[in-house]
Amino acid sequence: MMDHKAFVSALPAELREAMTARSDGPGLRHLALHLGAILLVGGLIATAVPGWWALLPVQGVLIVFLFTLEHEATHRTPFASARLNDEVGRAAGFLLLLPFEWFRYFHLAHHRWTNIDGKDPELLGGKPETLRAWLWHVSGLPYWWSGLRLMAALAAGRAEGDYLPEAAKPRIVAEARGMAVGYLVVGVGLIWSPLLWWVWILPVLLGQPALRLYLLAEHGDCPRVANMLQNTRTTFTNRLMRFLAWNMPYHTEHHVWPAVPFHRLPEVHQLMRDKLQVTAEGYAAFTKAYLERRL
Fold it and tell me: Other CB atoms closer than 10 Å to residue 183's CB: what's the count?
């Protein structure tokens, strides 16, 4: 059975070089559209258009899916500029209570040990195995509680985890402390104006369940093996969802070849579609199957 390393190695060297070339243009255009949607919906909420309250979860979904951009920025693939990748990743992390410098090493460890018990840090909290646990997970509340605890630890100078290089810990702590100051400024600002509550804070609370459902499909119920063609799922979905998630529904493709920028993952999919071993026909289908195995 072919594994992910054999697949990439079998490709012509010229193709491997071309597919991993990075540029700013596609990422900047995608970012402009994503941020434009956030600003548009946020503006409608801020001006209290009729039915504005129904836009709160829409705004939340638009913002929380900046996680997929932060995720990509850890690989420094959305843009050619390393600095632009880092700054965009930090901005997304601030909006999502997810320190970028810490997340970079957490996520790279996940890629190195995908779905391997005791090594993949994403498995430390476990996957929901009962309906009650699934509801709690999907609510997003565990995510926010974990984020607050992480921020408190990092701001206090406690950067823990065997995936964190010692040399990176001062930078990780400094970023968390800077974020804490930023959140304090936002909190004080809410005394004078509730605007950020309505266009950012409440929406991300309402939108987080959508991200939890999406993320569970990436590796949920996949075999605990080292082969990326087996331990990761590609989910077939519509263009809007692929746009919102920066093409990360092509998740097997991303794990097999993480150096490929997001905008070229559809091409990778065409190259390896007959090699995919774990797929789902949409997120509703995955969720239905996931729950059926637990009821």
Answer: 13
